[in-house]
Amino acid sequence: MYSNFILFALFILVLLVIRKPLGAYIYKVYHNEKTWLDYFAKPLEYLFAKSLHVNLTKEQTPKAYLSALLLFSLASFAFVYLILIFQGVLPLNPAGIANMSWDQAFNTAASFVTNTNWQSYAGETGVSYFAQMAALAVQNFVSAAVGIAVVIALIRGISRYHEKTIGNFWYDISKAIFWLLLPFCIVIALIYIFQGVPQNILAYFHIHTLAGTEQIIPQGPIASQEAIKSLGTNGGGFFNANSAHPYENPTILTNFLQVISIFAIPVALTYTFGKYVNNAKQGWFIFVVMLVLFIVSLSIMTMAELHGPNFYGAHTLTDMYGQTHHLANMEGKEVRFGIFHSTLYNTVSTAASDGGVNSVIDSYTPIGGMMAMINMALGEVIFGGIGAGLYGFLMFMMLSVFIASLMIGRIPSFLGKRIQGTEMKWVMLTLLISPCCVLMFSAIAFVYPDIKASLTNSGAHGFSEILYAYISAANNNGSAFAGLNANTPFLNVTLGIAMLLGRFVTIFAVIMLSGSLVMKKRASEGSSYTSLATTSVVFGALVIFTILIVGGLTIFPALAIGPILDHLMLATAL
To answer: 21-40: string of b/e by CB count within 10 Å (b at 16+)?
Structure first.
């Protein structure tokens, strides 16, 4: 138990250490200041601009920015889709993996373009090396860069006054890729290689065991995929077992590095935001509120797994020496990681839009699995995906300002910008699109005849498997509850649509909100316009309650007939 506290303290300490230098570095990059990576990144940026024939210096209006983003994402979708449906005849396919079906290719292309990385295929048997590198790994960089670009555009909208432009999309993603994601991933990949993660394009090994059977050991460019999988909060595994596979995550060090990588940029962006708006306390406020929510979530999930059987009456076990031991739920978890390394990883990955797992969430207690659902259903604003987590959190902050200001008779204002009806329409669209997708698609799926045949469990647990899939898809997480055969035309298409709506409707609203804010003048300092203290403890409590009420209660009825009912039924049965 004490080692768990030490590990958690070390985890938080590392995040605190990297927050300011990495956040300041991101700020310098987006202000085009000189950095120590210019010699590496500038030539690549030049080639990027020339190959796409784009102007990186011309500022864009919100509509132009959004148009560039959507066209780029559409081209990315088509590129990934074509590679997947023709991968069987493309090079670097030593395992002879066949072409994907149209519906699975649609789902996978939607998944990686939206930074969801939901996988209805097993990586080692469903995707060739060429598709892994040219399609999926590239999208891991690009889709993550889009998230960073969107939050930077929103921050400009908040920090600028009485302007018409919010930056340049091509400039923003090039900075994210060449100054941030690519160089850091090279370093992380090298560490993984030294820890034993393969990086090759060899054919799969066919080994004859002592028992006289044949065992196939997959190979591939794994380390490079793993680096961006975590740093870009993507989560798509090279193998079906994801980070529970020893090739993806062989040691405690790689496990710890992955959870740090997932949170590194989201944590740093809280400092970048404070720097942009010239209010360091505001950046610290966001970080602390996110940290409080994270600690609560991690604590509940960990206690549920450490004392899982105790909930159901199986309190202790007496060994042959007469010593009594409390039972923990180790089902579905790697022995080399244990309970806390597993719950830490899965809390981090579901709080961020990462989706990687190092244990089977379907085997968690109902309460433990429910916490993973709640982390995603809250909009993944507990640090969240790179870019997406911060702009989601800022939506909740603006909603909190609007509610609190009207309650005390002030005109809503956030960091010098008045929040009016137009802004609130965009805010509410971002907050409601994902839960609408979750509830509607889950309801349809649960009554769809073929879905029950895809489930390995019935009743409340079976419903949890369906619910988890759509929460994961609509919130662009990508982790799977397991127990659900998602590779059916209905699930591939509906989950793909949920991913696209959850990602791009949200981005549309965020960019439009940025465009509305950037044109505003600084609010007057009269008494009726005075902004709320958006860095106080009271306001922090209000933001937390807003997140829980809007994000939590929206999904609570579904949770009640899923994991909560599952928990009560297990307690009754045992």
So the answer is: ebbebbbbbbeeeeeebeee
Q: Which domain holds residue 249?
A: 20-573
Given pLDDT bands bounded at 50, 70 and 90, which one contains residue 527? very low
β-strand partners of 199: 221
d(CA 113, CA 75): 10
The helix (run of H) or strand (run of E) holding residue 419 is none
* DSSP structure string for 9-58: HHHHHHHHHHHHHHHHHHHHHHTT---TTHHHHHHHHHHHHHHHT--SSS
Q: Is the residue at 13 inside a domain?
A: no
Nearest to 350 by CA among 377, 331, 390, 386: 377
d(CA 253, CA 382): 24
Phi, psi of 326 (to 5 degrees): -75, 140
Whether the Cβ atoms of residue 85 and residue 107 lie closer than 8 Å to each other:
no
Q: Do 3 and 338 form a contact (C-beta atoms < 8 A)?
A: no
Say how far apart CA 185 and CA 271 lie, in whole Å.
21
Please say if the pLDDT value at position 393 is more than 90: yes
CA distance 76 to 71: 9
What pLDDT sits at residue 524?
61
The answer to whether position 502 is within a domain reads yes
What does DSSP assign to residue 530? P
The token pair that represents 43 in the structure block: 């030539």
Q: Does 321 fall in a domain?
A: yes
Note if the pTM is more than 0.90: yes
Domains of the chain: total: 1
